[in-house]
Specification:
Radius of gyration: 22 Å
Strand content: under 5%
Distance between the termini: 55 Å
Number of helices: 21
Length: about 375
Amino acid sequence: MTSWTQFLSGLGFMHITIPQIVMLLIALFLAYLAIVKKYEPLLLLPLAFGMLIANIPLAGLSAYDEGGLIFYLYKGIELGIYPPMIFLCIGAMTDFGPLIASPKSVLIGLGGQLGIFAAMGGALLLGNIIPGMNSFSLKEAAAIGMIGSSDGPTSIYTAGMLASHLLPVITIAAYSYMALVPIIQPPIMRALTTEKERVIEMLPPKRVTRRQKIIFAFGVTVGTLIIVPASGSLIAMLMLGNLIRESGVAERYVRTLQNHLLNILTLLIGVSIGATATAERILKPYTILIIALGLLAFAFGTIGGVLIAKLLSKLTGGKVNPLIGNSGVSAMPMAARVSQKLGQEYNPHNHLLMHAMGPIVASTIGSALIAGVFITIFG
């Protein structure tokens, strides 16, 4: 009887709780979204699986089970290794030509950062709005605000530095809303632009030489390390990846970064963060609030970018189509595709894709700089 009792006590289902069952159902739902609906499947599928295995009792596969496999994989998040490496891969995939050809698109990228401060302010004000609830701390609010960067690696990096206990829900919110960009942004873009503005045709971007791109990579790296050194890990890796791409002498590196390394890192990040989403950490009231603040951040980021684009349209005498303003958020390349699709819906001769890439890459750099400022001030 003693041996039988010991055997039964070693079975996971004998220890499972209602909150863990709820988390298992959420994990299966996320897997459904990844497999059937194809919402960010490369990240969402491993994330859902990590969440699943982390909430099975006695498996020892959560990010907090010391000595287990996921415990060590999660060190790449905890020590700030994976996000800069992702930036290295993104740099190898990114063409900074549209930004260099049209420096004014930096302003649209800055406008897209409005979402960061809207979500951060909302997090700090919640204690005054909801009776009996404590406001988030400055560190937590800053980490939540970075959901508005619309940049998954930047959100992960900042949360890991400032509020690691919020990392799972911040990551899930950030990547979920990035997948929902084609649904969230068009209504806002239509509401803030006129029929006349939507049909504006933009001239093809100016040609940018390889030398200009290489100088840009070195210049941004040095400038960032001098002014905002806390952003150095992200920006330096982004620019190294881009330098490898533009140098023309390291094609093997480019192929590896754009494909194999990026896929491996995405898989490791997904599983590791999913394995932090245990029932005791996720099933709390603040989870819903953070997800709501994430939606607020994406909405305000889109609003800020479109309003700046409208201003530029006025100042340039109608040479800028405000529909590229949604690309002030750095959801690359989804936001640019939304600009292109909506532009052609109103004018089949509109080709806004490359014009939209300028604000996106400006926003990627801008959000990394803001993350560095937050880490410096609050970290």
